[in-house]
Write the structure tokens for this entry.
Amino acid sequence: MGDVMELPEKGLTRRQFLKFSVAAMGTLAMTPWKYWSQMASGWEEGAKYGRVCLGKVNIRAKPDPNAATVKEIYDDAVVVWLREVVGNSPGYGSRRWVETPDGYIYSPRLQPVYNHPNKVVSELPVVNGERGMW
């Protein structure tokens, strides 16, 4: 079974493709559906959120690097951005913290984002007498 994760030099055989596909589908099946449904809905349009841009981030009880850790979140997690507050600096210079419903996150570790979904296009536009964009 050691050759399952090794890609051949000349291409992928049908058997190897099926093995990779089954492994990928098994991984997807183990992901909780609640997580996926939460990611797809529940975002307020135009609201401000914060996206984690560094590995692991601690959510603290107070805007202080020595405060108790309430929760840990990881890369690309999105949190509700309630407001910015001034707290104690963990030594990096900035004293800004973001208040979330769960606690406080050191501001430089979050990227501010907004939920502005694209409008659904029902048909391709007509450009120079032809349907399409290019």
Remarks:
- The chain has a mean pLDDT of 83.
